[in-house]
Amino acid sequence: MRSSIVAGLAALAATVSLAVPALAQQRDPAYAAARAEGKVGEQPDGYLGIVGAADPALQRLVDDINIKRRAIYAEKAKENNATLEAYALTAGCQAIARTTPGEKYRAPDGSWQSRTSAAPVRDARCP
After folding, report:
1. If 95 and its partner were Cys, which of 29, 38, 42, 117 is the partner (CB 3.0–4.6 Å)?
2. Element (H or E) spanning 112, and its range?
3. Which stretches of the chain are DSSP H helices?
4. Structure pTM?
């Protein structure tokens, strides 16, 4: 069963790569600043997370982005006959892979990491 899950995630990877860059283009200045300051980071589940304490404005920003991501994931998952969770996981894998040095991401053990020049540590289920 594990191999079929991995194969399914790999098949979604090409489709996800089309949806996630569109999200990156929607970055507003507040999001770009929070990302650059290490206040937010990518998570394996495909959603943005808050690193450390959140103020109300940051929480609203992250909630808004995650609502938009979920809507895109649900649409794309349906188009690809996949579950929302599988699609979101694949999107999370790709978003973490695209982080740049200095940006934050959540490692499989749940800790927040700062991206270095090395490849990020990703979930073993990533395609």
Report:
1. 42
2. strand 112-114
3. 2-25, 29-36, 56-79, 84-97
4. 0.80
